[in-house]
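Researcher: Let's run the pair from yesterday's discussion. Sequence first, then tokens, for each.
Model: Starting with the first of the pair.
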Amino acid sequence: MKIKIALIALLFSLAGCDDFLDINEDPNNPTHAELNSILPYAEATIFGQFGMGTAGISESLSVYAHQTVQRGDQDDYRIKANEFSLGETWDKMYSVAIPDLNQLITQGAAEGRPTYSGIAKILKAQAFAFMVDIWGVIPYSVSGNPITFKFPHFDDDSAIYADLFTLIDSGIADLDGGGVPPGNDDLVYAGNLGKWKAYANSLKLNMYNKIRLTSLYDAAKVSELLAGSLISSPAGDFEFRYNTSITPENRNPAFIREYAQNDPQYYISPYFYLLLKGEQACQNTLMVGIQDPRIPYYFYNQLTTGETPQNPASYQDGFFLSMWFGSFDRDPNEGFDQNNSQTVVGLYPIGGSYDNGSGVTAGNDSGMRGAGAQRILTSAAVD
């Protein structure tokens, strides 16, 4: 009897301690994320998805811009709806980047740290400006919350662009809202709010330039922007700086694709090459006679004096080896393996090698070993 009474008393005492048996909170998987954890992940996602690399959409768009050439659907303007880089970018923006930015906006305001909200609004405007440029009519007003909006409606592209200008202005205002700003968790400007404002204004100018032939263009606001603070030097470029770390992997994704795997994917477009050399490129005669001094920074030749390529080449000019755009399933030499012979993307775009004429095969330890920035908006573009 005494044992039963003791057990009953113990049960009642346990019931009175609400959290005594609450063992379902995993300290390694918190339900609340700190602002300084969300911001760097959102920034890395945006740059990764819009840049070059296995899952970056510039993997395909660089072919359309005639900077690179690839074997496959990208060639000859035949990208399909299920192209990996297209689908991956769409998915990661709507399921990762935009929800994270929305969380930064609301949580930054709630915690009295409006600078986080301001940065997130500017990043969100950049992301959606790109997405409208690429896809046109897309989900916007009710997007970024996959649980609440499982089937978000698509908004008109011009309406989205108009709202993005307002969003940027709101973000700039938040930067002046006080509170503790980000530090090194801001992987772009390390919390330098002056640089964020210059970038925000430059973003607006960039957007106005793209819609200059539409009713949304505002010449007075453009003049105001030109008289204000803009990105004026490479130190203010809106870019994501990678490094040489392998564990964890922090190298430029395109360097990994082009150098580290010993299976380069990006053939340099001969059209782009000839244009920079100052020779006639197809029907383009505008730059004839003007050689661009940056060629050794852009392209790295794996061939050197007297060296022959692995296989018959589709296109070769001295040490430069590539293939023509539109040669897929047409050129009999297009399909040959040239991984140790073809010209690859160089130092400037992806942290690869500067072309000094050595002809050393591109590899894991080449050049800057992947410490190349992913650039979205630069002082050169603003100029």
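Model: Moving on to the second of the pair.
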Amino acid sequence: PRYWDAASVKLDRLIGFCIDDLNTSFNLYKSGVIDWCPSGYMPSQFIPYVRGYSDFRHGDYQGVYFYSICVTRPPLNHPDVRRALKLSVDRDAIANDLLKGSRRPWGNFAPSGYPGYQNPPGIRYDPPKAREYLARAGFPGGRGFPKISILINTSEDHRRIAEAIQAMWKRELGIPVEVFTQEWGSYLQATSALKYDVARRSWIGDYLDPNTFLSCYVTGDGNNRTGWGDPRYDRMLREAAKELDPAKRFSILREAEILLLDEGPVIP
């Protein structure tokens, strides 16, 4: 009754369903049992179907989906191994084919849309170069490379993405990869304790600035969860924090992002 336009509201009540499975919730939406999915999350296979609905909205989001690598575990402690892994991920195929165009292929760690910030050239799909790096690390054609696992939390899309990358790494690099699923609490414990090889991660910006992403990978930051640290990177983030000239500050952050992408503790 205290709503400013209460006289115009024609609903007697709202009924909310707590549904864990996104496929279930969207099947209920399709059948008319529920009228709204307020989470904004939907299985990618539903995207072509719901695009025709008048209540469907789509736009850029200040978030990046990525894999983190536990760099304390051999052979993932070798930068060239991490470079091989990042260059053998076909982001276009994942975003456009697997996820039905619901995501933009992205090879950077900071998203787009920050006024004045020019994202560096992102990671590109380059299997021949990836194989060069793997050979340089001592695993030509994947020979001798131990089995690694991709850790995900329970989700249909997480599983489909992980299986696609598993196939890419096997096809392009010849390395053995398994997909390991944990429920949310166990997954958080494993990533925080660095008890994983490669893990599905994502980050959503807290404010409109690339620093909200890049500061996560300062040595020892609680959101780092890779074991990676580089004095050069830490120094650049400190310098950026003290720089009052916006253009110079963004230039420093851009160099920091270039270093982060090259060292490869994260795979956007």
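Researcher: Give me one sentence on the second I can quote.
Model: DSSP finds ten helices and five strands in the chain.
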